[in-house]
Design a protein that fits this description.
Blueprint (H helix, E strand, L loop, with lengths): L1 H25 L1 E3 H18 L9 H13 L4 E3 H8 L11 E2 L17 E3 L5 E3 L9 E5 L2 E2 H11 L8 H15 L6 E7 L2 E7 L4 E4 L4 E4 H8 L8 E6 L4 E6 L8 H16 L4 E5 L12 H4 L7 E10 L2 H15 L3 H10 L2 H8 L5 E10 L9 E6 L6 H12 L3 E4 L7 E10 L6 E10 L13 E2 L11 H9 L2
Length: 479
């Protein structure tokens, strides 16, 4: 009897989380609750975002909001409501959106083949080495690509189209399932006026007859299951060539002490071996926490330098309290400090101190970085590209401004004038996650339409996790 009870309890332990997840997906929301969630998102947007109507006018945003509200039925499941409210995402920047990544969804089980690329006109192509003869995707599982991409545009923020990684994830994880298109995929291709239907599965190899380019679908499946390809960092050291490669794939080293130790050991080893050339690959790093970058840069020998940046932000309670504390401490130093603090303290601190919570303030500040007399002193190359975003852009800029690395590859996906630094929260009734950019940050000569340009343009395949021999040679032969 006890054994039976134990088995029942174990079964319930396994089932309850799934039942809870299913309950959240199917939870019914009435019209008042859905309107409340929409209002909540826009209140947060107006309270925190420095310029929510930068990409789309206030009239166009309000028009889409009203269309959404007026089209709501009396009730919807949370899942169905999510499909509707997230169509607002294309109106804003990449750091302002309602997440399609439901907190109850296990996206680790979703297969995301990195095989497609999307151009600026939202045409879909099979990713191939020779773009002049690449194959255009005409349909997926019988649905015309034009209708698929029209739906896709609703969920794609203004800045995300530059990233093949983000584009493929958004397309395969969310947009296609929303349209009822699921794995396995049958795609119709057109090249040189010829139509061809191929199946994307784990035992197929597609050959483009125009270029003789082979797309090994089985290798894509294996790659998607390769855990080494998704670690925050991977390392390679070749003593014969005096070459080391650090694959920095995610800015979250600050959250993992074991990875921090591995990075430390890596730099200790290349220092002891006197490795001449170091490549740090951030091509597919879409960001995370800027503090993560310090766990690499602190091992780099460099001269003193200054980082300049202009900022446009809303004053938050935390900002107000921190500024008030700094001003109070500063004014207590002497009578002169008390009288002239507005002239002698950093302008952004004074503006926050003098302003009210919710006010928009603009400031230009300089961060002085002290010289580091020890650490790796060899040649450094930073490999970046269109999949380099957010904190990874900050990482590349650190090497650019410090003059401690040569930037190679392509332009970053994140612009050097961008909305970033997020407030993360949940909508009250649907419990859908959302985020709002808290500020606009611009580096000297920054442009909201372009990313950080490399010192040297080098064609590197962003769909591959690791650099190939030809790419490595192109990088280290030039200094």
């Amino acid at each position: 009897m006890n054994k039976i009870v134990i088995k029942v309890l174990l079964l319930l332990t396994l089932l309850l989380p799934n039942l809870a997840s299913w309950s959240q997906v199917t939870k019914k929301l009435d019209k008042a609750q859905m309107k409340s969630d929409i209002d909540h998102f826009f209140r947060s947007l107006h309270q925190h975002h420095p310029n929510p109507y930068y990409f789309c006018s206030k009239d166009s945003v309000e028009r889409e909001r009203n269309l959404l509200v007026n089209s709501l039925p009396d009730s919807l499941s949370t899942s169905e409501f999510a499909k509707r409210i997230t169509t607002l995402n294309h109106l804003f920047d990449a750091h302002t959106n309602i997440s399609l990544d439901f907190i109850w969804q296990d996206t680790s089980q979703v297969y995301i083949p990195p095989i497609f690329e999307i151009d600026n006109n939202y045409n879909l192509y099979v990713k191939e080495k020779y773009t002049s003869v690449r194959s255009k995707v005409m349909s997926i599982n019988g649905q015309k690509t034009t209708s698929v991409m029209a739906q896709f545009k609703k969920y794609m923020s203004n800045e995300q189209i530059r990233s093949n990684i983000r584009g493929n994830i958004l397309l395969f994880t969310y947009c296609l399932p929303i349209l009822g298109i699921n794995h396995p995929y049958t795609i119709e291709l057109e090249h040189n006026g010829t139509l061809e239907v191929i199946n994307i599965s784990n035992n197929k190899v597609y050959t483009n007859s125009a270029s003789n380019y082979n797309l090994d679908c089985s290798s894509l499946y294996k790659k998607s299951q390769d855990t080494n390809a998704v670690q925050p960092s991977n390392f390679q050291i070749n003593t014969d060539r005096s070459l080391a490669i650090l694959y920095y794939t995610s800015c979250d080293i600050d959250q993992d002490s074991s990875i921090q130790q591995q990075v430390k050991t890596f730099f200790q080893k290349i220092d002891s071996l006197k490795i001449k050339n170091l490549i740090i690959d951030i091509r597919n790093n879409t960001g995370g926490n800027t503090a993560s970058n310090d766990y690499i840069t602190k091992y780099i020998k460099h001269k003193a330098f200054t980082i300049k940046q202009s900022v446009e932000e809303r004053i938050t309670n935390d900002y107000k309290q921190a500024a008030s504390s700094k001003v109070k401490d500063y004014r207590q130093k002497s009578l002169l400090h008390k009288i002239f603090y507005r002239l002698t303290m950093p302008s952004h601190i004074v503006k926050i101190y003098a302003g009210n919570v919710g006010d928009l303030y603009k400031a230009t500040y300089k961060e002085k970085v002290a010289a580091r007399t020890s650490g790796y002193s060899g040649n450094i190359f930073i490999a970046q590209g269109y999949n380099t975003f957010s904190s990874a852009l900050d990482f590349a800029l650190w090497f650019k401004v410090s003059k401690r690395g040569i930037i190679v590859g392509d332009e970053t996906g994140e612009a050097t004038d961008c909305f970033s630094n997020i407030k993360f929260d949940y909508l009250p009734h649907s419990n859908l996650a959302y985020m709002v950019a808290l500020g606009r940050y611009k580096f000297p000569s920054g442009n909201i339409a372009t990313g950080l340009k490399p010192d040297r343009y080098i064609k590197i395949d962003a769909s591959e996790s690791f650099l190939n021999e030809e790419e490595i040679n192109q990088i280290i032969l030039f200094k």
